């Protein structure tokens, strides 16, 4: 059965979120017994060495993708494109980071137990008992901890499609999760590669497979789909080197109707006045038109290339998407890739059969088919109690009616503030049978007792969909540290529920299919981090009204927050 270890804090996940949470807890509790568990065999989560490959690029840029206390060395020019860089530099940075941070003679790396999968979590006698299993030896190990930090991420459990006939298929079936560690691009036995899915991960695998000299087919679902992803040029404008820098300004954040940006004369003009919404509609239409024009989806003599055109306008974010790191992406696809639209019928020896009759030659099938929730070590009842997604049927009649009333009030408020959200385009919306996340500030459970200070023993880090996790999890780490230590005052449970209902209702209206889980924040990174820091009463990250509005937010802007936090909340700490 394995042994039992008692620790002060247990962190589940050794990616960006878990590293940030463990590091800041140790900054403020340097002699604390902290252990980090990760189901993978290397550190870094999405950005670990197993999942990476040489031509895998980040969607973030130099100076924005790092923690505030340790700059990432600038990559060489050959690994840069408009300040975006190859993901292997984030991998190296995270590994250097866990080696360079030491507390009481023990580095962050020393505290990580890899290839260790959490099996179950139980609340016993006021603490948490966590049962884990080593994935190679199957040896079980039990941890008992007073405080539990769940940082398991959104992209750790692959979602594999149903593939009838797979037992007779002679090739490999590989999810994006295993693409980087596979030999499909170099194996002479793999000549025909088929990629499933229309998102950014699928697009990356399509491109890399073509560049490796393979014959590539790209299969998009035909029914019950939000359509292929929206892929945008990463080029900047004016003083901004790239589109990401533009998106990391507070001004750009106001161009979308968001409850995270606050309400003032400017946002009321843009989203509630007579002329503002028309102005914004024109702006987003121009972005949409430019992206479609650059892709040139209506190319002549290119079969099915037009099927790569997104089904919904870019404003609504109903499908997946991302910034392009390769200038020749669309030309490469048009010249070299066979695009199919169809649902899977079955796999055969070396063929993927689609229900429409197409037969796709396939030696290897690559699946860019998304991810399951990584919270499977919680039971459905625990999910209900903690505010995590769970089957709607699992709610009590009282809970269901209470949330329905709260969301009805919230919906009226959302539409009164942002009337344009009342009229989404006629697009496919993914059905769901689960509740959304209902975590206060997207990190902590609501208190069922009516007193949020009675049980501050569990937090969730990184369970939000954002474009840059570094500033988000750094601010979440500060917020949750104050929360776990009972130093952060929270509103009443009733007010917490109203806040949650307002966000989840707005999220469904704003992001359609992507908003159903209530954790989408595509354009809300700055608004969200500002909210967390405002709760804490911290402001050293601000740099004057003009720069606050027009300047990009950089990692270095958060450099003074640790000292400000420790002084305000009475932490002593020590030098590392």
From TrEMBL:
Protein name in the entry: FAD/NAD(P)-binding domain-containing protein
Keywords per UniProt: FAD, Flavoprotein, Oxidoreductase
PANTHER family to which the protein is assigned, alphabetical: DIMETHYLANILINE MONOOXYGENASE
Source organism per UniProt: Talaromyces rugulosus
InterPro entries named among the record's database cross-references: FAD/NAD-bd_sf, Flavin_mOase, FMO-like
Pfam families documented for this protein: Pyr_redox_3
GO molecular function: flavin adenine dinucleotide binding; NADP binding; oxidoreductase activity
């Amino acid at each position: 059965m394995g042994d039992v270890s008692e620790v002060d804090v247990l962190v589940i996940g050794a990616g960006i979120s878990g590293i940030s949470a463990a590091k800041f807890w140790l900054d403020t509790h340097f002699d604390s017994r902290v252990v980090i568990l990760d189901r993978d065999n290397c550190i870094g989560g999405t950005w670990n060495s197993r999942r990476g490959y040489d031509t895998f690029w980040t969607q973030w840029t130099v100076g924005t993708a790092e923690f505030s206390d340790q700059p990432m060395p600038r990559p060489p020019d050959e690994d840069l494109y408009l300040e975006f860089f190859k993901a292997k530099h984030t991998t190296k940075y995270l590994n250097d980071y866990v080696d360079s941070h030491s507390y009481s003679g023990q580095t962050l790396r020393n505290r990580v137990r890899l290839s260790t999968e959490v099996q179950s979590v139980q609340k016993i006698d006021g603490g948490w008992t966590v049962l884990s299993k080593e994935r190679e030896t199957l040896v079980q190990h039990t941890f008992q901890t007073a405080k539990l930090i769940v940082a398991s991420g959104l992209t750790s459990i692959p979602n594999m499609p149903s593939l009838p006939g797979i037992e007779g298929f002679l090739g490999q079936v590989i999810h994006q999760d295993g693409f980087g560690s596979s030999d499909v691009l170099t194996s002479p036995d793999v000549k025909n590669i088929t990629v499933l899915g229309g998102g950014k991960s699928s697009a990356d695998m399509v491109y890399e497979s073509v560049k490796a000299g393979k014959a590539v087919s790209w299969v998009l679902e035909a029914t019950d789909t939000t359509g292929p992803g929206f892929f945008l040029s990463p080029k900047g404008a004016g003083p901004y080197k790239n589109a990401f820098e533009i998106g990391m300004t507070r001004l750009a954040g106001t161009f979308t109707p968001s409850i995270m940006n606050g309400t003032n004369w400017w946002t009321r003009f843009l989203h509630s006045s007579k002329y503002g919404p028309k102005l914004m509609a024109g702006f987003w239409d121009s972005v949409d038109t430019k992206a479609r024009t650059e892709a040139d989806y209506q190319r002549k003599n290119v079969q099915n290339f037009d099927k790569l055109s997104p089904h919904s306008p870019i404003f609504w974010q109903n499908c997946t998407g991302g910034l392009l790191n390769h200038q020749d992406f669309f030309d490469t696809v048009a010249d070299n890739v066979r695009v199919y639209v169809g649902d899977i019928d079955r796999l055969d020896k070396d063929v993927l059969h689609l229900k429409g009759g197409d037969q796709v030659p396939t030696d290897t099938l690559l699946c860019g088919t998304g991810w399951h929730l990584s919270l499977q070590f919680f039971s459905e009842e625990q999910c209900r109690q903690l505010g995590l997604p769970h089957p709607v049927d699992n709610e009590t009649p009282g809970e269901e009616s209470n949330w329905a009333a709260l969301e009805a009030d919230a919906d009226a408020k959302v539409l009164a503030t942002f009337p344009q959200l009342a009229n989404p385009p006629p697009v496919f919306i993914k059905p769901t049978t689960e509740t959304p996340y209902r975590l206060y500030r997207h990190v902590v459970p609501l208190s069922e007792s009516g007193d949020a200070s009675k049980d501050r023993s569990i937090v969730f880090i990184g369970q939000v969909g954002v474009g840059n996790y570094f500033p988000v999890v750094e601010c979440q780490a500060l917020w949750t540290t104050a929360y776990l230590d009972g130093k952060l005052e929270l509103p009443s449970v009733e007010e917490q529920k109203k806040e949650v209902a307002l966000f989840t209702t707005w999220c469904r209206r704003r992001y359609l299919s992507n908003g159903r889980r209530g954790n989408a924040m595509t354009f809300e990174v700055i608004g969200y981090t500002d909210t967390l820091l405002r709760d804490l009463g911290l402001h050293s990250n601000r740099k004057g009204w003009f720069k606050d509005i027009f300047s990009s937010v950089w990692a270095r802007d958060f450099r003074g927050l640790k000292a400000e936090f420790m002084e305000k909340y009475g932490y002593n700490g020590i030098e590392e």
